[in-house]
Amino acid sequence: MNEQTRTQIREINANANLTNQEKAREIQKLMTPNTPKSTNIPIEPCSHYDPKFKKCHKFKFECCDRIDDCVRCHKTNSPTCYNKPTDSLRVVEIECKECHTGQPPSNQCIKCTVKFNQSYCLKCYIWTNNEIYHCEDCGFCRIKEAQYPNPFHCQPCGACFNTPVGHTCIKYRFCEQICYFCHEYLHNSQKKCVVMKCEHLAHLECSMQSFQSGNYRCPLCRKSIQNMDAYWEQIDESIEEQPMPLFDICAGGRFETPYGEIVVIQKNGDDMVEGQFVNWKLGKIYIHRDQLSNPLVKIQCLDCEQKSHTDFHWNGLKCWECGGYNTVKE
């Protein structure tokens, strides 16, 4: 940056007649002198919308006079014009792909009368072949699915849903959340979102990729993100088919017996064990080692949040409160 540019920036900042937004625009124009000013200059087509359906391009934006192929391209190429999700961007001119005529935004060319796309929103400056509707509460357009003709905006959740039938409000507002897998802001995300079993929010695609890779826990709370009953049954069958080998008995060990849980005091010979009941107010018990089950370990279940003791097995530690295996050893 040369001294002349620095002087011009200082003059802009010192101008009391300009707002902070106007100062930012003037400085951006000063720092980007090569920004396209005419729709005659070719630009790289965007990948956000299908070019087979979108018949207009070269959007000229009021904020900085830059020309981009769509609003999403402009947000990427000129992030200073879009500091907050609530900022609006105004398109002042577009160009028809058929006759190359510059004109104010609309959905039909003023010269050749071609229709630019199936759906169009003047507030969001979107031309798309999907059926869309503009939600004033969200502040932007959403895609309307054919099987759900009457979507609605839930004020407590802060988001639009396909149908009010069966809808239950969650304890987190969509407009304040991110996907805990990829950390993208969910409110204006282009991907489908889902409320997981733990009631945290995520992209449907991200949650499915995590589940298919073998990770069934929420990154935030570590609870199961889906119903795991079928998987827990598979682990039950696997444990039944693979019994634990003989185990060592030592003082202080906890074991389950037909009469209740005991703590080993000492071994009496090779086969007999002297122990103390854990939950019964009884004296000592002498029991044959064949009546002892696998050693018990203390666990905490991440799904039901209960602490308990369970049989040790290398395939998993079962929570006897909810029947799941989403547990950790304490």
What do these coordinates show?
The chain is of the alpha+beta class and 330 residues long. It folds into three domains: 35-130, no CATH class; 148-212, no CATH class; 229-329, no CATH class. It is 16% helix and 24% strand. The chain has five helices and 19 strands. The protein has helices spanning 3-14, 20-31, 71-77, 204-212, 229-241, and strands spanning 56-61, 67-68, 91-96, 102-103, 119-121, 126-128, 132-135, 140-143, 152-154, 159-161, 193-195, 201-203, 254-257, 260-268, 272-277, 284-288, 296-301, 307-311, 327-329. The strands form seven sheets. A four-stranded antiparallel sheet has the order 2-1-3-4. A four-stranded antiparallel sheet has the order 13-14-15-16, with no helix packed on it. It is elongated, with a radius of gyration of 32 Å. It starts with a helix and ends with a strand.
Give the tally of β-strands.
19
Can you tell me the overall shape?
elongated
Q: What profile does the largest beta sheet have?
A: 4 strands, antiparallel
Radius of gyration computed on alpha carbons: 32 Å
For this structure, the quaternary state is: single chain
Strand content: 15-25%
Task: Please provide the ordered H/E string of secondary-structure elements.
Answer: HHEEHEEEEEEEEEEHHEEEEEEE
For the terminal residues, how far apart are their CA atoms?
Answer: 60 Å
> Can you give the helix content as a percent range?
10-25%
